[in-house]
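REVIEWER CHECKLIST
Item 1: Sequence provided? yes
Item 2: Single chain? yes
Item 3: Sequence as submitted:
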Amino acid sequence: MVLPAENLALFRVRRGTDAEFHRTPYLSAIHPPAVDPKSASCKTPGARHVSLALRIHLHIAAFGLILACAAAHAANPVLKVADPHAAVFEKAMWVYATGGGRSGEFYAWSSRDFRHWEKHGPVLRLDDVPWIDDDGAPRHMAWAPCAIGHDGRYYFYYSVGPQNPTPSRIGVAVADSPAGPFKDSGKP
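Item 4: Structure as written out by the authors:
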């Protein structure tokens, strides 16, 4: 994942893998990168996987993208959640997921450095969704959240429903902050 506005690239590799990132000589000749080293490498001995956060300088050339990297370990947490959705808002990485709290609630996590993560929420509770019971089903589930930002507002989309006897529906809620709380739109 490359985040150009943050000069950051994320890679997940198996621990023990030697990772090398080389500049392309042809592209370097077209537009010399600001960082001088010809490559950055990182050895990752130890356990199974590691995430690398690479501070990068991006240069768009006529035919490609040049990455000049300096590697550092990212201390990403292992979140016991499902359906994660990641987005960059306000110069931070935000992760929205199914789970992470009590049933019927959505939570979010944010980090500006990929080492220190803050849990937010619940960002939305199903108890605050007025249309959820209009299908007559005795029980509802919600999953697969997604958030987007537009014109200073944040929109939180999620699937909800019993699945049987009625089909699932998509809800949308709005907030002034990526941390919520999100207010449901009032209809699926």
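Item 5: Key structural point noted by reviewer: The two ends are 32 Å apart (CA to CA).
Item 6: Recommendation: ____
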